[in-house]
Design brief:
By secondary structure, the chain is an alpha/beta fold. Helix content is 45%, strand content 15%. It is globular and about 55 Å long.
């Protein structure tokens, strides 16, 4: 679509805010006494795990689908997702008459996330062993059939929708000093960073990714976007993507630091969320806390927001991870 060639501006986030207002929650920002004592800083949790569909992805998906014309919505709306973005696109198409979603998923996608996608009415097509393989097939399918591809993180309308989280953080804590954001493909951190920096350049934004998919670290280190990298296996399935040229452009000179955490560190953070706040979060949502407690990010005595991105994990898998940790079989 033509929007891909346009510069991205903070004004698009404000437009998304107005567009999304009838459809989504303004999620709460909660102070955590326990996590603050453990980390040595003021920890606030931006509760996107309580958002519709159980994750932040619905913001971008609705913003993009709502921006399409009626004629465009009558074409197939095609996407690629490990689960959460697919559920969000499926939910978004339900809001508009005549829209139909086709969601390509990796063959190892979590069953609970597939059930959520299906519950909103989308057609699911399993393909490939990792996100990039699945993405390639989804793009081919959309082009062959004349569908509209809804990128999980690389489109301005998606980024603008996710950026509304930054606006809400500023409204609740105008003097916020640090915001820590998970990174998969960079759409979330691109939107939040743009919103925050447009208000106050001194706010420090950190990114955290899985060590199995360190595309952001590699891109910022080398000064160009590594859009195709070797992706390993991780319990943080929602972060198994890579930056796009747009998300790299929006973030590489303005992000304070990007760090990577491993699966054992993620499980430790999931346990802390449960022990201190009785929160059930999926692995991808726990990486920000994992980076702090592992010492990868030092933000002592700072007023800090962790964006808690989602809760979509089956009880069986959640219980297994917290009880048994990471087994060699799970890491394969």
């Amino acid at each position: 679509m033509s929007e891909l060639n346009k510069p991205f501006s903070p004004g698009e986030i404000w437009e998304a805010r107005k567009r999304l207002k009838p459809y989504i929650y303004s999620t709460p920002l909660l102070f955590s006494t326990g996590l603050s004592q453990i980390t040595g800083c003021e920890i606030y949790l931006k509760m996107e795990c309580w958002q519709l569909c159980g994750c932040f992805k619905v913001r971008g998906a609705i913003n993009m689908v709502a921006s399409l014309s009626e004629g465009e919505r009558r074409r197939e709306l095609v996407t690629c997702s490990s689960g959460n973005h697919g559920a969000a696109v499926s939910f978004a198409t339900n809001l508009f008459r005549g829209a139909k979603a086709i969601v390509f998923v990796p063959r190892k996608a979590e069953k609970s996330k597939l059930a959520k996608i299906k519950s909103y009415g989308a057609e699911i097509i399993p393909y490939g062993q990792d996100f990039l393989m699945t993405l390639d097939r989804a793009l081919e399918y959309a082009e062959e059939g004349g569908g509209i591809f809804i990128h999980s993180h690389g489109h301005p309308l998606i980024i603008a929708g996710q950026g509304t989280i930054g606006l809400e953080i500023l409204e609740d804590i105008p003097d916020v000093e640090v915001v820590v954001v998970p990174i998969g493909g960079g759409g979330l951190i691109s939107g939040i960073l743009t919103a925050l920096k447009s208000a106050n350049e001194k706010i420090r934004v950190f990114g955290v990714e899985s060590s199995a998919a360190p595309g952001a670290q590699m891109s910022y280190r080398d000064g160009y976007c590594h859009e195709r990298i070797q992706i390993g296996a991780s319990i943080a399935d929602g972060l198994m993507g890579t930056l796009t040229p747009l998300t790299f452009e929006l973030t590489h000179k303005r992000v304070e630091k990007v760090v990577a955490v491993n699966d054992d560190q993620i499980v430790q953070a999931m346990r802390l969320f449960q022990e201190e706040e009785q929160l059930t979060v999926e692995p991808s949502a726990a990486v920000s806390l994992a980076a702090i407690i592992s010492g990868e990010i030092d933000i002592r005595n700072k007023k800090t927001v962790l964006v808690v991105t989602g809760r979509n994990i089956s009880w069986e898998r959640y219980q297994s991870l917290l009880t048994d940790g990471i087994s060699p079989k799970q890491e394969e």
